[in-house]
Amino acid sequence: MEKMLVVFLISCMLHLASAQLKVGFYNSTCPRAESIVRGIVQQRFNRDRSITAALLRMHFHDCFVRGCDASILIDSTRSKSSEKDAGPNLTVRGYDLIDAAKKALEAACPSIVSCADIITLATRDAVALAGGPKYAAPTGRRDGLVSDIADVNLPGPSLTVPEAFSFFKAKGLTLNDMVTLLGAHTVGVAHCGFFQDRLSNFQGTGQPDPTMDPGLAARLLRTCGTASRPVNRDPTVFLDQGTSFVVDNQFYNQTRFKKGILQIDQELALDKSTASIVSIFASNGIAFQQSFASAMIKLSKVEVLVGKAGEIRKNCRVFNPRKPTVLRPGL
């Protein structure tokens, strides 16, 4: 009973926080905010379509630690290692795009737009540019005051569906949300080290993973080599072998034919709790697009800071200088 009460209270707190977000939050305080971010994302996308995958990953990795508070953007110092330097985040990129957007926004309306909102808006715009859904993202987040490497605990690529879902459930996300959000693997790449065991020595058997298409395993083996004899320094391969830069439903079709690269991706099509969702998305691109827009909005509301919580950073990479406490005489 006590545990249920705690879960209920947390749920209520999350609902109240997300309820304070709203579409067009900056309409009066910084009317050009969203168009400024969109323009910078457009410029980057024109020369580097892989930025969509980079921003999706940054957004996910930020929201899954302390909530969507831009804590992933903080640089480490000599005395404190931040989230950015945790193992899973060492290959996160796109920080320079966030910096560029922040610089432009500070010039237009100083100390108004949070870094957390910049990540959300930039990711939304990149998704749309890559052929994904266009959706209205509520804004009004504030930036966090903590970034600690010890807080980073993200779901890995070799988890089972139940194991992975425990991470999503803890953030208030449903099983459908998880299957949908993992569909972000329709763009981007993975280093061979994350799936190399599936190619030749799955779970110590000395054989390839039987749930991977043999032809795909053979092709990937030529690219990656084996764990004991890699081809070169941990190369990357596209997670979606067909439409690698397009946010579409082909990722789900590939998993149905045993062509999921990461183990968790393939597990989605095999586990009885998620197989039917994969089947729906594989056969209905519109259903996936609608679900993806909804899930991305829901993800962007995870444990947000609003109102007077947190701060609006001047520089996304560092916390604002703390104001000294002034004691009144006699106290």
How large is the count of helical segments?
Answer: 13
Q: CATH first level of the largest domain: which class?
A: Mainly Alpha
Question: What class do helices, strands and sheet pairing give?
Answer: mainly alpha
Write down the domain tally.
2
Unreliable stretches covering 5 or more consecutive residues: 1-15
How many E-type strands? 2
Oligomer: single chain
| Major sheet | 2 strands, antiparallel
**What letter string, H or E per element, gives the SSE order?**
HHHHHHHEHHEHHHH
- Helix coverage percent: 40-55%
Q: How far apart are the termini?
A: 45 Å
| Name of the CATH homologous superfamily of the largest domain | Peroxidase, domain 2
Radius of gyration, in angstroms, nearest whole number: 21 Å
How would you write the strand order of the largest sheet? 1-2
CATH fold assignment of the largest domain: Peroxidase, domain 2
What's the CATH architecture name of the largest domain?
Answer: Orthogonal Bundle
Report the sheet-strand fraction: under 5%
Outline type? globular
Mean pLDDT: 92
What keywords describe this structure?
Peroxidase, domain 2; two-stranded antiparallel ribbon; heme; Peroxidase, domain 1; disordered N terminus; peroxidase; 2 domains; iron; disulfide bond
